[in-house]
Amino acid sequence: MSAPRRVVITGTGLITALGTGTEKSWQAAINGTSGIGRITHFQDPKLKVTIAGEARDFQVENYLDRKEARRMDRFNHFALAAAEMAMTESGLPIGLDKPNGYEPERVGVIVGSGIGGLASLEESHKNGLEKGFDRLSPFFILRMIVNMAPGRISMRYNARGPNWSPVSACSTSAHAIGEAWKSIRWGEMDAAIAGGSEAAITQLGIGGFESMHALSSRVDDPATASRPFDKDRDGFVMGEGAGLVVIEELEHAKRRGAKIIAELVGYAANSDAHHETAPAPEHEGAQRCMRLALQSAGLKPEDIGYINAHGTSTPFNDLHESKAIQRVFGEHAKKLMVSSTKSMTGHMLGAAGGAEAVFTALALQRGIIPPTINQFTRDPDCELDYVPNKAREVRVDAAMSNSFGFGGTNAVLVLRRYRD
Question: Is residue 266 over pLDDT 90?
C-alpha cells in the first residue's frame, strides 16, 4: 500500500440562513448574527412551530435557467449552486486539456442529504390526490431522490470518478467529506466535490420534528430561539442550505497554484448502537469517534484548539456532547474553545456538517473563532468555553468538527491550519 497523501481544501460553497455565498455567511457568523425568522415557505395554522432558518436571499435563477430549475427540488438547487461556488473558488481543472488538469475519472462527487426532495414529495402527493397518480410529473422521482445532487454536479463538471450520496441524518455531509478524504488520501481519487444539501422546511418536515418535541417552541423571539448550551434551551431550530468543499491531493494542488484554505487531516465514523434518537450516556459513541479521529490525524488532544460542536440546542445533545469532550480532552478541555454555529444558522440537518466544516476551515485560515450566540445563562452542567456571543480573534493550529445524527451515527472531521 502506498503512503497516505495529504489532502487540502481549495474551494468552499455555503448557502445558509446567514446568506448565500461563503463570504456572506462567514461575515454574518463572526458578527454573531441570527438567521432565524418566521417561516415564509408555507403557512399552517395547526403547527405551533412557525420559525426556521430559511435561505431567504437565495435566487435560483443566478445559478440555473428556469427550465432546468423546474426539474429539480430545492435541495438540488442548493447543491448545484454551492458546487458552483466551490468550483469557482478552487478553479479545479477537470480534463487533461487544461493546464495541470485532473483526469475526469479521478475526480469524484460525494454529496448527500438527510431527507432529499421532501417538498417535491409533498407537492406530488397533493397533485396525485387531486388529479390522479397517473398524472404525476415524469421528473418527480428525479426531484426526490438524494443522489441526483451528486449526479447533476458530476454531469455539470464532467467528474467521472465515484458519484454517490451518504444518507446519515445530521452526520450526512461530514460523512461525505470524510469518505472523500479517505479516497484521496489512499490514492483512489485525486480530487472531489463533497458535502451536503438540505431543504426540509416544509409542512412535513416541521410537522414531523414538532411531533417529536425536538423543535424549539420559543416562537415569540425567533432570533434567540436557538441557544446551544444555554440553561433555557428547549430544542433545535430547523435550517436549510448547503455546505460543499473542493478537496484535492496536496502536491497537485500546489503544482497548479491553488489557494489552500486548510488541510483535512483526520476523520472517523462510528455508531452509538444505543437508541433511535437519544445519545448514549455521556455520548460514549461520540467519545470514541473523537478519539478515533484524533488517531487518524496523528494528533494528541492538546493539539486541538477549537471544536465546532454539533451543539443542536437540545437538552440531551448539548449536555452529553459537553461531557464527551471533557472525557476525551481531559484537563485540556478547560483550554478548548467550543462553539455552535447552529445558534445562528439553525440546524441544517444533512447539510450541517458540510457548512460547519467550512466554518471550521475559515476559523483556522483567518484566526477568528465564530461565537455561540444566545448565551444568556450557561447551563451549569455544560462546563466548557462556548465562545459566548462574540467572535474571538485567536489563531489555532488544529480544530475539530463534530456531527452526530439520529440512529446513533457519528462523524468527526479534524482540520489543520495549512503549513507547507
Answer: yes
